[in-house]
Design goal:
Layout (H helix, E strand, L loop, with lengths): L5 E3 L5 E12 L21 E13 L4 E13 L10 E12 L9 E3 L8 E13 L2 E4 L2 E4 L4 E13 L4 E12 L5 E2 L14 E2 L7 E13 L2 E12 L8 E10 L4 E10 L3 E13 L8
Antiparallel strand pairs: 1-6, 2-3, 3-4, 4-5, 7-10, 7-18, 8-9, 10-11, 11-14, 12-13, 14-15, 15-16, 16-17, 17-18
């Protein structure tokens, strides 16, 4: 389709922005029962970093901008090593920016995209990871000695509202080899967890099928998504869960992507990482040349 070139008038003097950051953080001094017993938050030297900034931009003059807002930050290792209480930080930000050589936005040409065809697309994702497990006994948790395998898939039907937003529902399957494990015959403290004897249930008590509502914010090369779901087919215990997801899809080709995600239970219990690949069927996003 052909598109018209339009001219942009004077831009708004105020605007709201959302800035997301995903990455790794290094240099942590992790928990050690002998030399660092007070750090009960971090169990690894390298941790994931997630950050979201919500801020307001106000153009004071042609060259000067004032920004103010809220910053939310989370550090954790994705439940791959104990302890993993994580670290959450909330901060306020304010600042002034001087833009050298900024010209008036009057009559500045704006890039115009082709009309967007609203449509359904279908994302099939396969993922895997490993996790550690804390086993509840009464009002305490004890660290299981092993790392457990997690495998799963998501098949999401998403309605594409425009260039920046898509939403839909997903069928979520998971095999979590840590689900419903229990202490067999002894209880030890965290520092001696290597001696812990753990019983694993049958594989049927470690499989679940769930459904979730999804929303994704679309950017060039990246999709940031959130999801809320519940398992409807399972045999109880750990898998009787209300789960939440934060995901990042990084484009590899036009319709294939790398998937990085993290799952929580009940908004506060660490679940597992989701590291995988996916493919988008019926992708009708316009091509830009």
């Amino acid at each position: 389709k052909l598109s018209r070139t339009v001219l942009r008038g004077e831009s708004s003097r105020k605007g709201a922005d959302l800035l997301d950051n995903f990455g790794l953080s290094f240099g942590w001094k992790p928990y050690d029962d002998a030399v660092n017993p007070l750090n009960k938050m971090m169990g690894s030297k390298m941790n994931a970093y997630l950050n979201a900034d919500f801020f307001l931009n106000w153009r004071v003059t042609r060259e000067v901008d004032f920004t103010a807002g809220l910053s939310l930050t989370h550090f954790s290792n994705g439940n791959t090593k104990f302890p993993n209480a994580g670290l959450n930080a909330v901060g306020l930000r304010a600042g002034l920016t001087y833009n050298f050589g900024r010209k008036s936005s009057e009559m500045a040409p704006r890039t115009v995209c082709p009309a967007f065809p609203r449509h359904f697309s279908y994302d099939l994702t396969f993922f895997g990871s490993w996790r550690r497990k804390g086993i509840e006994v009464g009002d305490k948790q004890y660290a299981a000695p092993d790392a457990y395998t997690v495998l799963g898939f998501n098949f999401a039907s998403m309605y594409n509202f425009g260039y920046k937003f898509r939403a839909g529902v997903s069928l979520d399957g998971v095999y979590d080899s840590s689900a419903n494990v229990a202490i067999a015959d002894q209880i030890v403290e965290m520092g001696s967890s290597a001696d812990l004897t753990v019983e694993k249930p049958g594989v049927d008590r470690q499989l679940a099928l769930g459904v979730s509502a999804r929303a994704e914010f679309v950017m060039p090369y990246f999709n940031i998504g959130v999801g809320l779901g519940t398992n409807f087919l399972h045999k109880g215990g750990d898998l009787k869960a209300f789960y939440q997801m934060l995901t990042l899809k990084v484009a590899v080709t036009r319709s294939s992507y790398v998937h990085i995600g993290y799952s929580l239970r009940d908004f506060h219990m660490p679940n597992f990482l989701m590291l995988g690949v996916g493919y988008r069927f019926n992708n009708k996003y316009p091509r830009h040349r």
